[in-house]
C-alpha cells in the first residue's frame, strides 16, 4: 500500500475544520483546475480528472472532530482511500492531515505517486486559503 500525506496547521478550532471537511460539497473548493464535472451531496462526490478518469467517492467513516474517510463507490483503476484527520495543536488551532492510501503496482506507482502527492499538497494548501 502506498501512503501519501500532506498536513497543515490552521488557527481555527478542530470543530470548525472538521465541520468544513465533513461536507463533501465543500471539497470542490479544494480541488485543482484539472477536476471538472463536479457533482456532490453532503456524503458523496463524483468528478472527472482531466485526461485520466471519472471518480465517485463517498464518506465511509466519520469520527466526530477526528477523522473522515472516503472510498470509491464504483470500481476505480486501483483501490484507494482518502482520509482527513484533524487534531488540536495544543494552542486552540488544528493540525489537518490529508492521507491518500492507494494499492499501486510498480508501474502505477511510477505514474501516480507524484500526481497524488501534488493533489494532497494542493488540497491542504487550499484548505489554509479557504479557512483563514
Which characteristics define this entry?
132 residues; alpha+beta; Alpha-D-Glucose-1,6-Bisphosphate, Chain A, domain 4; seven-stranded antiparallel β-sheet
| Rounded radius of gyration (Å) | 14 Å
Q: In the residues, how many domains can be counted? A: 1
Report strand %. Answer: 35-45%
The side-by-side strand order for the widest beta sheet comes to 1-7-6-5-4-3-2
How many helices in DSSP terms?
Answer: 2
CATH-derived architecture: 2-Layer Sandwich
Class from helix and strand fractions: alpha+beta
Task: Quote the distance from N terminus to C terminus.
Answer: 34 Å
Q: Any idea what the shape is?
A: globular
* Order of H and E elements: EHEEEEEEH
InterPro entries: START-like_dom_sf (IPR023393)
Organism: Pedobacter panaciterrae
Protein name: SRPBCC family protein
Could you give the topology of this structure?
Layout: E1 2-10, H1 14-21, E2 35-40, E3 44-49, E4 54-63, E5 67-72, E6 80-88, E7 94-102, H2 106-130
Antiparallel strand pairs: 1-7, 2-3, 3-4, 4-5, 5-6, 6-7
Question: Would you summarize the structure shown here?
Answer:
This protein has 2 helices and 7 strands. It has 132 residues and is α+β, with helices and mostly antiparallel strands.
How does this model look, in words?
This is SRPBCC family protein. This protein is of the alpha+beta class. The chain has one domain (2-119): START domain (Alpha-D-Glucose-1,6-Bisphosphate, Chain A, domain 4, 2-Layer Sandwich), CATH 3.30.530. Helix content is 25%, strand content 42%. The chain has helices at residues 14-21, 106-130; strands at residues 2-10, 35-40, 44-49, 54-63, 67-72, 80-88, 94-102. A seven-stranded antiparallel beta sheet has the order 1-7-6-5-4-3-2, covered by helices on one side. A hairpin with a 3-residue loop joins β2 and β3 (44-49). The model has no long low-confidence stretch (mean pLDDT 94).
Amino acid at each position: 500500500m502506498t501512503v501519501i500525506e500532506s498536513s497543515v496547521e490552521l488557527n481555527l478550532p478542530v470543530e470548525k475544520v472538521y465541520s468544513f471537511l465533513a461536507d463533501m460539497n465543500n471539497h470542490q473548493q479544494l480541488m485543482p483546475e484539472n477536476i471538472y464535472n463536479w457533482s456532490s451531496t453532503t456524503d458523496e462526490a463524483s468528478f472527472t480528472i482531466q485526461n485520466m478518469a471519472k471518480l465517485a467517492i463517498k464518506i465511509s467513516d466519520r469520527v466526530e472532530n477526528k477523522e473522515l474517510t472516503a472510498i470509491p463507490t464504483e470500481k476505480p483503476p486501483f483501490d484507494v482511500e482518502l482520509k482527513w484527520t484533524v487534531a488540536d495543536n495544543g494552542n486552540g488551532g488544528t493540525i489537518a492531515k490529508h492521507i491518500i492510501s492507494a494499492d499501486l503496482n510498480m508501474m502505477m506507482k511510477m505514474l501516480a505517486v507524484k500526481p497524488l502527492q501534488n493533489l494532497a499538497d494542493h488540497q491542504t494548501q487550499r484548505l489554509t486559503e479557504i479557512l483563514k
